Amino acid sequence: QSDKFVSAGPQKFTQEFIDKQVEEFEVGKRHLANMMGEDPETFTQEDIDRSIAYLFPSGLFEKRARPVMKHPDEIFPKQTAIQWDAEGRPFHFLFYTGRQSYYSLLHDVYEKILAIERHQDKMRNKGLFTLLTGSRWLLKEEIEEYLVENISDHDYVRLIQLMEKLLSMPYCSLEEEFILKFRKQLEAQSSKHEIPALQYDPQGVAFSVADGRRKTAKASITLRDSGSGNITINGRNYLHCFPLLQDREQLMFPLHFVGMLGRFDIEGSVEGSGHSAQAGALRLAISRALLSFVSEGEVERIRQAGLLTADPRIRERKKPGQEGARKKFTWKKR
Amino acid sequence: MLVFFLFCFLYKSRLSLQYDHEKISERHTGQYYTLPAAHIQKLFPHGLPPRFQLQIKTFNEGCVMVRPPALELISYLKKADYSKPPLRYILYGDVGTGKTMCLSHALHYCYTQGWLIVHISDAHLWVKNCKELLPSSSRPSRFDQPIQASQWLKNFKITNERFLSKVQLGYVWTKRERTEKGQPLGELVDQGVNRMKSSSDVVGAVLRELRLQAGGATEGEGAFKLAVAVDGLNALWGKTSLKKEDRTMCEPEELTLIHNVRKMMKNNWSGGAILTALSQTGSLFKPQSAYLPSELLGEEGFDNMEPFVPVSVSNYNEKEFESCYLYYLDRNWLQHSHSRSEEGKKELIFLSNKNPSILERLCAFL
């Protein structure tokens, strides 16, 4: 129904129509060549104009009104094809800007700019890339040491900005050595964790001991490599200690992450705080104890999973003049 | 592959093992057998745990797993001598390990063998949350619980319909009501159901009559064996949470129902068996870690029940867990795609520690 309301606009020619006109023009051109007695293959547009002027002499002063035989592309105005489908939805995404071709051209140019910038980045960072990650700029104190002079914060910031500008040049790899003098390597964090030693039972069963803490709850664990999945905490089964599913899931997390669920026997003791904190403390202790059973790459993975970070959150102090740590007394306007 | 094989075997045997207790033996441990719907309606109008009743409704069938404690009980029942005083069996174990289910299994066996069933589904219900506590009409120092008593009589009637016409007796209730000698048991039960005031006394009378008549006639029409099943036995000797009118605590002794059931527990009659199960979940004033008979029954209860045959019920072992897991898979209960994998199964084992009730609750939302 929307067809009724679409304005016709300048008359639109379909592509088939134009193609047909082109065909007719070619055929007509050959006919004309035959008529004039010239070779159809080498009949150019100038020859056509000459022939038409000869065959149809016209006394009109306006040159553009005289009979013309030209290629249809020159006669029919170059039009845009219909830009919307049968339901009235436009094809191009920029149709509603009014000038879709112009804006899409701008888009293309910008894309090319971005591609070139990316290429530039690649080229630029080829040399220094591996050395820049895992290192940082020297601190203000270290620069002062190097220069044996005092510099202010403002000066330090200016220096770092200038270094960054140097790095942004495409061919800064020429000055690699110079730049590296002012960068310091960061230590890999995973080597900081100390892995508890793997001890052996009289029976030859491997076990390790580890501690964990969370919010006043302290846990200490012995992880045995015996092959059953029993967990005993404070002498009782963990089903009794943690009737809540959430706590048991916390216990399960380190073992499940490493994929060794049914392999270990855990014997532990916890004290202090509430059930959730105790579960958190146990989880930390299990992850630490697991480090000795696991390879180097796995240690890094466990660290990145956040199993080895001790949760620093503690109960916030209640402040005077307030109900609790954050809650204020009722505010009265007067 | 082994799992798949076991599953096939399990599935086949699940369909074929109906309720033929003769054929069930130790090699069927871990397999499920179906309780016929008619039996469930008659035998367990109040007996099954509520979650299991929900499961029956969902799966449209009641399947019970055959487990060693139940088999042990049934074998004792088969071998016992019924001319002697009844043996007392106590099922004990940790919370959620399946004591009530094993008891129901054994009770089903008794039912199919044609015994008369006296089943108290949860004695804890009589000892707490009672709205009406009437002073007893027959004895001055006791208290009646008409609602619970009449409820129980109704259930008793449904379970033991075929016996109601057989047994005969006579009693005096109040000045106006009396039952003559020679009246069938059914009439007595009906009277208890209709007249709420004397229902607790009716219960006592019924129990006494059954005790007297159980071992009485050895052959002929009147012969029957009596199965007394009590769940939550520790309620009989624990404390109540009911208060008398002058706001002092009630002792279990002072409740008619409890008193009568205690009398049943004594083995001064013959011709039957006493099957009981302890229960910590409904018990009052007992810590959650207590599950041994001595802890839950207390000194008095323990002395009263001695000697008894203890039967311990524990968590699923590997095979039983496997079977339960396959059953849930078979019924499409485990919808989560991860739970069908090996790792999912390991997680389930860890999280539930192969405890039946916790596993059931876990699988409920998967």
TrEMBL record, chain A:
Sorted alphabetically, the keyword list is: Mitochondrion, Ribonucleoprotein, Ribosomal protein, Transit peptide
Annotated spans, Disordered? 311-334
Q: Molecular function (GO) terms listed? A: RNA binding; structural constituent of ribosome
Which GO terms of the cellular component aspect does the record hold? mitochondrial inner membrane; mitochondrial small ribosomal subunit
Pfam families per the UniProt record, alphabetical: Ribosomal_S9 (PF00380)
Q: Per the annotation, which location comes first and is thus the protein's main one? A: mitochondrion
Q: Which residues form a coiled coil?
A: none
Q: Where in the cell is it found?
A: Mitochondrion
> In which family does this protein belong, per the annotation?
Belongs to the universal ribosomal protein uS9 family.
Identify the PANTHER family for this entry: RIBOSOMAL PROTEIN S9, SMALL RIBOSOMAL SUBUNIT PROTEIN US9M
Stated name of the protein: Small ribosomal subunit protein uS9m
> From which source organism is this entry?
Cyprinus carpio carpio
UniProtKB/TrEMBL annotation, chain B:
Q: Which UniProt keywords apply?
A: Mitochondrion, Ribonucleoprotein, Ribosomal protein, Signal, Transit peptide
InterPro entries, per the entry: P-loop_NTPase, Ribosomal_mS29, Ribosomal_mS29_met
Signal peptide (from-to): 1-16
Do you know which Pfam families this protein is assigned to? DAP3
Where's it found, cell-wise?
Mitochondrion
Gene Ontology molecular function terms on file: structural constituent of ribosome
Q: Which GO terms describe its cellular component?
A: mitochondrial small ribosomal subunit
* UniProt entry tagged with the keyword Lyase: no
GO biological process annotation, one example: apoptotic process
What is this protein called in UniProt? Answer: Small ribosomal subunit protein mS29
Tell me the organism: Cyprinus carpio carpio
